[in-house]
Amino acid sequence: MRSMFAKIFLSFWISEILILFSTAFLLRHHFDSPEVQHNSLLQSMTMSGNAASAAYLSGGCPALGQFLSLSPEPSYLVDSQDRVFCAAAAKPDLRDVLRQVHEGPRRLAGMQIGDRYLWATEIAGPAGQKWSFVISGPYPMEHHLPLHDILPRLLISVTVSGLVTLALALFLTRPIGMLRAAARKLAGGDLSARAGSGKGKTLAASSPPSLDELGGLVHDFNHMAERLESQVGAQRLLLRDVSHELRSPLARLSVALELAREEAQPEMESHLARIEREAEHLNKLIGQLLSLSQMESAQRIPDAEVIPMKPLIERLLEDADYEARSRNCSVILTGAEECEVSGNSELLYRALENIVRNAITYTREGTTVELALRCEQKDSGREAVVQVMDRGTGVPEDQLKAIFQPFYRLDYARQRATGGSGVGLAIADRAIRLHAGQLNAANRPGGGLAVEIRIPCRTPASQ
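Above: the chain sequence. Below: its structure as tokens.
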């Protein structure tokens, strides 16, 4: 099976097996059960007790003493009256441990006395008596896991589990990470962005789809990106071709209009003037469409120059304020700081002019359009921030981003009195993005719209 479920199941299964083997290794060497320890000690002491009993019966105390001297720990052979055979002058008090082995349900008894531990078990005497064999040894710390012994094995177990988990995480998240990166590039306008296969290669949409879910998702994403790039490219080409083709009949229309004026009656002048205005409007629209098409196909600004923003804003203020007087409005500069950006001054001027003209068009009569320039320090560097604020009716919150799309106009703006075609802000947005900047809009408290332009300042390296 090559499905994603099978891969996840297999990876987790292998990880669990490794963890179980590591745990079993530790338990096998350091965590024997109490029952196993009890039985092992009982068998060992029973064998030693029987051997000590045989030595005593065959050679008396000398043989018993010689046998017991072979043990690294003091040992004692006790008769049915709890008397130690061939007892030395110094011996521990064995009464309590012997009572436990005689009265207890188990054949092995043990108790701690100081730093020593007594183990006792019953053995059969020569006539069936209940003799006992006792060993006195240090407290059995070996049954309590020593940290210096278990720590290396524990680190090995944790390391193996961590490596398996890391490999599993990379296996699952690497294709998703590449898919996210490609999606961000696509959303940023790079329609050539494609997601990789997870092996450093890019999957073409024409390649056969993978049988697992992630591979299929990457294939479908690339197919979607190719279709999107193809459709957007065709749309841009159509827009450019139509704009070029309209220029010729528009030029002939202007020539015909001038010829008609020479032969027209005076009462026809108003109609001819209307035709001239509409032709001029159409010519302006075609020029905007061509500009938009050129900027949409451009990826960078050729021959970028240093642009001082303050003189550019002051020149724009003079032209905009003159235009605003026709609507009984004004444009004022509330602040201007010295900062420089890199780009095309004419393109940037036209972008700012479109934004200011839009503010003049929709601000209420008798109000003021405010223009401000400041420099801000960000983590990524300094930015030139231009704000254009009007006192119009504002924009619904859910349409604040849509107003920068070509030919998008709000319902209340779809009136002949407002003029325009919905292309100016789209041109401004594309021009600002070509300068690596951002264009955002927000409603002002008390009514009106505030448009903010952020452009990275020229870095010291480029100065």
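The longest helix spans residues 213-263.
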